[in-house]
């Protein structure tokens, strides 16, 4: 029995394996904010978990079978595959709950949705490949998203 299996069994933790995007070297942890977010949630919850970095250029066949058509991040929780990052967060908060594990969910769940929307618009703006033709469209989407997030946060106060 590995140290991981032994620790999980003795501490009565769920068996969790997190599959995240590998860095440019194909092995180190990559720069995917969604992968890093799930890693941080598990770490802050204080559970023991395995991390497998996945080189998207050479994705192993067994991973294609485990989560067909899905790229990291995804995870297994007691053998059950979970692929949607937002649903994984909700699932972890539900399964790894107080008093044994700390609560990490925001007081107002709407704030999380607003943050996700702002991040998506910001990412599109930053990654815009054709600044000359698309800048106005992405600029407007980002500005609208930021204004809505600001208005939402003021109404929650």
TrEMBL record:
Entry keyword annotation includes Membrane: yes
Domain CLIC N-terminal: 14-99
Record's bilayer topology term: Single-pass membrane protein
UniProt keyword Isomerase present: no
SUPFAM superfamilies listed in its UniProt record: Thioredoxin-like
Organism superkingdom: Eukaryota
A GO term for molecular function: oxidoreductase activity
Record GO cellular component, one term: chloride channel complex
Catalytic activity: chloride(in) = chloride(out)
Keywords: Chloride, Chloride channel, Cytoplasm, Ion channel, Ion transport, Membrane, Oxidoreductase, Transmembrane, Transmembrane helix, Transport, Voltage-gated channel
Location of this chain's protein in the cell: Cytoplasm; Membrane
Record family assignment: Belongs to the chloride channel CLIC family.
Protein's UniProt name: Chloride intracellular channel 6
Organism: Neogobius melanostomus
């Amino acid at each position: 029995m590995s140290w991981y299996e032994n620790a999980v069994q003795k501490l009565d933790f769920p068996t969790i394996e997190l599959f995240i995007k590998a860095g440019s070297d194909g092995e180190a942890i990559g720069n995917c904010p969604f992968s890093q977010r799930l890693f941080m949630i598990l770490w802050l919850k204080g559970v023991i978990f395995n991390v497998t970095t996945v080189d998207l250029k050479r994705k192993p066949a067994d991973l294609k079978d485990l989560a067909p058509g899905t790229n990291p991040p995804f995870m297994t929780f007691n053998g059950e595959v979970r692929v949607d990052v937002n649903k994984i967060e909700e699932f972890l908060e539900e399964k790894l709950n107080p008093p044994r594990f700390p609560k990490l969910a925001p007081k107002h769940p709407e704030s999380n949705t607003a943050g996700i929307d702002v991040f998506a618009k910001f990412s599109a703006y930053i990654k815009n490949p054709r600044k000359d033709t698309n800048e106005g469209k992405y600029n407007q989407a980002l500005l609208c998203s930021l204004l809505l997030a600001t208005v939402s946060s003021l109404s929650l106060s």
